[in-house]
Amino acid sequence: MEVQDVRDDLEEILYTREQIQQKIAELAAEIDRDYADKDVLIVGVLKGAVMVMADLARALKSHVTMDWMAVSSYGSGTKSSGVVRILKDLDADLMNRHVLIVEDIIDSGLTLSWLKANLESRGPASLEICTLLRKPEAAKVDIDVKYVGMDIPNKFVVGYGLDFSEKYRNLDCIGILAPHVYS
Ligand code: XMP
Ligand code: MG
Fold this sequence. Notes:
- This protein has helices at about 15-35, 50-60, 110-120, 180; strands at about 10-15, 40-45, 65-70, 85-90, 100-105, 125-135, 145-150, 155-160, 175.
- By secondary structure, it is α/β, with parallel strands linked by helices.
- The site of xanthosine-5'-monophosphate (XMP) has 20 residues, from strand 5, helix 3 and strand 8.
């Protein structure tokens, strides 16, 4: 769906489909360069990272293995609970693998810092993080993120995999959700 399909639900469009693809291409070029002599396993965090994974993987010029993990941290609201639960674990064994976690967004960072520690304990050769979006003002923990698409304001955003109550994931752009939708 496109912005006109959600009428006035967005307060502002942050990134258009074209701007997102441009950013993904830049991230892919960096990743291709950094992993030139290594086999990388990219781990997508369901469900939000589906679009980023699909586009990032296709923008890469080298082979990658893809795996998925589902964790819950938010429920259906707009605030991080800090409580993380594994809903679906990886199929792959991470021992001695070069692992790159792919995320849609880092908000408080609580989900990712938990996930990073969890995957780190599985013995990967390396573990890095790639996120399309990050909200610097919302950070509650300090995490080292190697690849960041864009830093955004501390507002609730939807589209391109990001949902509000499971809606807007299939919106082709990223926008700030208008408060009248959730209040
Ligand atoms: P934390 O706060 O743990 O949150 O870094 C990470 C997860 O929360 C979701 N999230 C959002 N989802 N719009 C969304 O649709 C947002 O603005 C937003 N902020 C956080 C997301 O699933 C992310 O992985
Ligand atoms: Mg979500």
